[in-house]
């Protein structure tokens, strides 16, 4: 009796020979149910490579589809983070992790919720950067009920249904920024704060700790009311120009959220050695690196993108493999500090 061939397997499974070839040689992705049908057909007719097909099916079932929802693609930091997440997912452990990275052009809670459901429908686990809002928490809880774990990235959320948070110790970020401005300023004066939104818990904690440092260690400085940019460079630029116009005795600015590109544009030409103020912002990008070198920005407190991405992927994989435990985990990474002399 002739040995069964790939044609026989294809006929038995009701698929094309090319599909059988894709399962065996992994030339392209095959739907899990189709691959299972090929396996059952191969075993039923005694196909010699049935054991190899089983191994391929098991390998495919071990693949983790990891979804990442980040803020605006136009923001240089999130493009860098997206690239790091893709690299970390592809390099993770023995299991194959297939990354899906999407960016939010609209940052409203409704837009975030819609994207959570869209991406959640095609992945096994999610990591998200989002402002804290009841609708966002509700969506994450509903995804958890469907077996889709969610990790908060960069900024935490208040929902207890997240499986973990991966980011910085934002209390230390805020106090470090305050220390820099307090120590580097030529003398006491007014200090401005620009935030994306206080709904980002990381930014809220940064501001609280920034103020607490001055209250404890340098009460002679006057910390102004925080201005909000909604993560928009144009709004951040307008806010910075307004600060410079209304407060000629301004000695420092802390940019604790997005929109730093706009602040840099505002400071160019407005700040001279005679009226130099100390500016501290977050994350090293092509813009902030140039601003450091040009003396427009004095210090950058940066997320370590590669380590952040690796920790996020590891947290997601642990959740999928049932190793995350019953309580959410918190992974706080040490931040990097950059000045003009070490970029």
Provide the fold topology.
Blueprint: H1 6-13, H2 17-25, H3 32-45, H4 50-61, E1 64-70, H5 76-90, E2 97-103, H6 109-120, E3 125-128, H7 134-145, E4 150-153, E5 164-168, H8 170-184, E6 190-195, H9 201-217, E7 222-223, E8 227-228, H10 233-246, E9 250-255, H11 260-267, E10 278-282, H12 286-294, E11 299-302, H13 305-320, E12 329-333, E13 336-338
Parallel strand pairs: 1-2, 1-3, 3-4, 4-5, 5-12, 6-7, 6-8, 6-9, 9-10, 10-11
Antiparallel strand pairs: 11-13
Helix pairs in contact: 1-2, 1-3, 3-4, 5-13, 6-7, 8-9, 10-11
Can you put this structure into words, describing what you see?
The chain is of the alpha/beta class and 343 residues long. It folds into 3 domains: 6-61, 434 Repressor (Amino-terminal Domain) (Orthogonal Bundle), CATH 1.10.260; 64-167 and 305-333, Response regulator (Rossmann fold), CATH 3.40.50.2300; 170-302, 3-Layer(aba) Sandwich (Rossmann fold). It is built from 13 helices and 13 strands. Helix 12 links the parallel strand 10 (278-282) and strand 11 (299-302). The model has no long low-confidence stretch (mean pLDDT 91).
Q: Give the overall shape.
A: elongated
Radius of gyration (Å): 25 Å
Sequence of secondary-structure elements: HHHHEHEHEHEEHEHEEHEHEHEHEE
Strand content: 15-25%
What CATH calls the topology of the largest domain is: Rossmann fold
CATH-defined superfamily of the largest domain:
Response regulator
| CATH top level assignment of the largest domain | Alpha Beta
Number of domains: 3
Helix content: 40-55%
Mean pLDDT equals 91
Low-confidence runs of at least 5 consecutive residues: none
What is the number of E strands? 13
């Amino acid at each position: 009796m002739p040995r069964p061939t790939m044609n026989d397997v294809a006929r038995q499974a009701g698929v094309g020979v090319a599909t059988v070839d894709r399962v065996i040689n992994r030339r392209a992705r095959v739907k899990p149910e189709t691959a299972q049908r090929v396996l059952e057909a191969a075993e039923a007719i005694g196909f010699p490579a049935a054991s190899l097909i089983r191994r391929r099916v098991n390998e495919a079932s071990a693949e983790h589809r990891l979804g990442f929802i980040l803020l605006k693609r136009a923001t240089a930091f999130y493009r860098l983070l997206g690239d790091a997440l893709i690299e970390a997912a592809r390099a993770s452990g023995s299991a194959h992790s297939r990354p899906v990275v999407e960016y939010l052009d609209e940052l409203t809670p409704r837009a975030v919720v819609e994207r959570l459901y869209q991406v959640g429908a095609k992945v096994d686990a999610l990591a998200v950067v989002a402002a804290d809002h009841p609708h966002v928490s509700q969506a994450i809880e509903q995804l958890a009920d469907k077996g889709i774990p969610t990790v908060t990235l960069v900024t935490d959320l208040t929902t207890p249904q997240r499986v973990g948070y991966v980011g910085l110790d934002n209390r230390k970020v805020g106090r470090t920024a305050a220390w820099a401005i307090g120590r580097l300023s030529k003398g006491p004066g007014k200090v401005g704060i620009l935030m994306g939104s206080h709904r980002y818990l990381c930014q809220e904690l940064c501001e609280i700790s920034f103020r607490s440092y001055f209250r404890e260690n340098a009460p002679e400085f006057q910390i102004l009311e925080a201005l909000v940019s909604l993560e928009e460079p144009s709004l951040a630029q307008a806010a910075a120009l307004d600060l410079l116009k209304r407060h000629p005795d301004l000695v420092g600015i802390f940019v604790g959220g997005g929109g730093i590109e706009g602040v840099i544009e505002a400071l160019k030409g407005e700040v001279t050695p005679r009226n130099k103020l100390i500016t501290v912002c977050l994350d090293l990008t092509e813009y902030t690196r140039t601003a450091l070198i040009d003396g427009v920005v004095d210090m950058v407190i940066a997320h370590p993108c590669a380590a952040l991405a690796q920790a996020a992927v590891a947290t997601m994989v642990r959740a999928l493999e049932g190793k995350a435990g019953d309580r959410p985990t918190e992974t706080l990474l040490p931040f990097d500090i950059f000045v003009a002399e070490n970029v």
